[in-house]
């Protein structure tokens, strides 16, 4: 079958050559003189653009007749030039070349300096005509004219047609009658290109990439005009969209494997750019969205310019990629999550600078603490640094709410440039806060850090808690509540004992090693015997009773141990009873010291009993 097709094509080619060379074959010497009446012949060129799939099997013979069945679509704007090569033809023939051999040489011969006839550009119907002289003077003789017709200007979206060699006058088939109009069909094949790349989503570090389905793109040419869905009448792509919102602008969507494909487009030499118009969650478009992938076409060869996951520009003929990114999450930490009231808490806020930092227009770190927290650091002293460097950012924070702050970094051009220049490094802010009086006990107290940006806000929260313990003062034997007892709260260190303090003027809690400090905290049992201590971290503490209720005596061992847990304040089952005995009755508080005291008393009674018993025996 292949051999038959080849033979057929060769046969058509030979036949076409014979037809186009018929005028010279009619001459006895291959060149003949013509009468003065035969001056010109109208040669009309029918320019058609064909797709590869429309190639006629074996070709179509250019026999000068109209061919309404010729495939393809009219191609306007093509300019042809006819070169008078009669003299060259004469040279080849005198050198004993056959007509066919001479014509083949003429197709590629140097036509510099020869007489030319330039056609007008083909019209919308793809046609252009010229009345070419049918004769040419060679060495003083008027000869049948031979021309090479070349395509000198054509859209770069098509492969230029082969040069045509024609001898005039052109005769009707099988006669010696010149045709009134010669119709020729130089063929152009549209170069169909496929532009493609793969779309990925990555984290803010440009890592952990995944193929991204559902991102949308449009394609624009070098004049920033957008490709439309409906092609031109010629079958060529229609790049006439002014904006992406124009009616009929064609969209390309990344598939399940991240592929973005613009297939079978007959594109001219030039630059074509994919512009991203929407991403897919949780990833956002970057500042490169307007030129996410650029394809440059030159005579059928495609070269892509694109960016890797780290934003580095790359160039290749295949394998182009495009990336969108997730927003980084800030990190908020505190040095002690289990704290006393008024304890100095050291907070650290950090944010790793994202790979696409240049894509952001808003870049704020905002601290939003619970109203039960107070900022100890002076607002004007807060600084942001880039970790691992000596760089201190110059943005001055502003107050946010009652006790928070905001660093609006991109409002400071210098800091914006510094941040973009330090991608992958970490911004750090350190500050101090404390839990205020009145905080809810055994309840998380949040301090929220928000990264506010123009894509999607992200946040982190550091939580602290403070706790306490409830007590009830009771009669040791009657279990009735006792009012008016006074206590100190203390904790044992490695070498020291610290006492809880409270400054009534500043309303600030603390600790001191001075038992007799003027601001020591004194707890007093109420009418129902109840009293409590709050604002303590979990741990082991002691009560020291320093004043007994009226009519009661201090215990010999006044220290009473208790433990603060995460629920010891709110759980009623953990309320501890602290007993007292009336005057004249052996006091007992349940503390460690009472055991020894009772043991000594029992020993004395036992010794006394034995003594009196023996005296009675010897009496």
Automatic annotation (TrEMBL):
Record's keyword annotation contains Transmembrane: yes
High-level lineage: Bacteria, Bacillati, Bacillota, Bacilli, Lactobacillales
Endpoints of the signal sequence: none
Transmembrane parts of this sequence: 593-613
Keywords: Cell wall, Membrane, Peptidoglycan-anchor, Secreted, Signal, Transmembrane, Transmembrane helix
Residue ranges of domain Gram-positive cocci surface proteins LPxTG in the record: 586-615
Annotated ranges, domain SpaA-like prealbumin fold: 470-571
Residue ranges occupied by any Gram-positive pilin subunit D1 N-terminal domain in the UniProt entry: 39-188
Designated name of the protein: Gram-positive cocci surface proteins LPxTG domain-containing protein
Domain of life: Bacteria
Keyword Transmembrane: yes
């Amino acid at each position: 079958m292949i051999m038959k097709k080849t033979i057929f094509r060769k046969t058509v080619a030979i036949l076409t050559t014979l037809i186009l060379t018929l005028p010279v074959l009619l001459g006895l010497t291959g060149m003949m003189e013509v009468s003065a009446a035969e001056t010109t012949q109208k040669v009309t060129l029918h320019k058609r653009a064909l797709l590869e799939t429309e190639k006629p099997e074996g070709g179509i013979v250019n026999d000068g007749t109209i061919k309404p069945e010729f495939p393809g679509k009219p191609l306007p704007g093509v300019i042809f030039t006819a070169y008078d090569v009669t003299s060259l033809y004469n040279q080849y023939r005198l050198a004993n070349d056959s007509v066919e051999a001479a014509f083949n040489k003429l197709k590629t011969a140097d036509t510099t300096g020869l007489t030319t006839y330039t056609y007008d550009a083909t019209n919308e119907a793809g046609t252009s005509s010229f009345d070419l002289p049918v004769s040419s003077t060679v060495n003083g003789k008027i000869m049948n004219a031979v021309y090479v017709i070349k395509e000198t200007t054509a859209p770069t979206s098509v492969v230029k047609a082969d040069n045509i060699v024609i001898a005039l006058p052109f005769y009707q088939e099988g006669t010696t009658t010149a045709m009134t109009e010669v119709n020729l069909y130089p063929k152009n094949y549209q170069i169909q290109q496929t532009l493609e790349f793969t779309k990925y989503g990555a984290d803010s570090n440009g890592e952990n990439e995944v193929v991204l389905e559902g991102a949308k793109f449009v394609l624009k040419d070098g004049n920033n005009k957008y490709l439309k869905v409906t092609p031109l009448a010629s079958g060529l792509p229609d790049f006439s969209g002014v904006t992406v919102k124009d009616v009929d602008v064609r969209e390309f969507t990344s598939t399940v494997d991240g592929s973005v494909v613009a297939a079978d487009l007959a594109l001219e030499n030039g630059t074509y750019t994919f512009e991203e118009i929407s991403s897919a969650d949780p990833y956002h478009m970057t500042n490169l969205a307007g030129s996410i992938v650029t394809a440059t076409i030159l005579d059928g060869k495609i070269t892509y310019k694109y960016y890797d996951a780290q934003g580095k520009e790359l160039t290749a003929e295949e394998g182009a990629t495009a990336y969108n990114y997730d927003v980084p999450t800030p990190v908020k930490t505190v040095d002690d999550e289990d704290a006393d009231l008024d304890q100095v808490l050291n907070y650290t806020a950090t944010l790793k600078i994202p790979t696409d930092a240049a894509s952001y227009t808003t870049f704020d770190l905002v601290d939003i603490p619970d109203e039960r927290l107070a900022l100890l650091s002076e607002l004007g002293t807060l600084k942001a640094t880039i970790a691992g460097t000596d760089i201190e950012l110059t943005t001055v924070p502003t107050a946010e709410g009652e006790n928070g702050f905001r660093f609006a970094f991109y409002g400071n051009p210098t800091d914006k440039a510094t941040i973009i220049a330090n991608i992958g490094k970490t911004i750090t802010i350190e500050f101090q806060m404390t839990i205020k009086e009145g905080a809810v006990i055994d309840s998380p107290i949040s301090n929220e850090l928000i990264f506010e940006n123009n894509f999607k806000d992200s946040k982190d929260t550091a939580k602290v808690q403070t706790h306490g313990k409830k007590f009830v003062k009771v009669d040791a034997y009657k279990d009735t509540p006792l009012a008016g007892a006074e206590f100190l709260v203390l904790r044992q260190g490695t070498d020291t004992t610290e006492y809880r303090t409270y400054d009534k003027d500043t309303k600030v809690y603390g600790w001191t090693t001075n038992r007799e400090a003027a601001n020591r905290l004194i707890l007093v049992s109420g009418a129902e015997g109840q009293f409590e201590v709050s604002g303590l971290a979990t741990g082991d503490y002691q009560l020291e009773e320093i004043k007994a209720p009226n009519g009661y005596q201090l215990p010999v061992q006044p220290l009473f141990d208790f433990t603060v847990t995460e629920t010891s304040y709110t759980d009623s089952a953990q309320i501890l009873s602290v007993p007292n005995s009336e005057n004249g009755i052996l006091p007992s508080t349940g503390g460690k010291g009472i055991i020894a005291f009772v043991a000594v008393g029992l020993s004395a009674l036992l010794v006394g009993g034995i003594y009196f018993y023996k005296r009675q025996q010897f009496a």
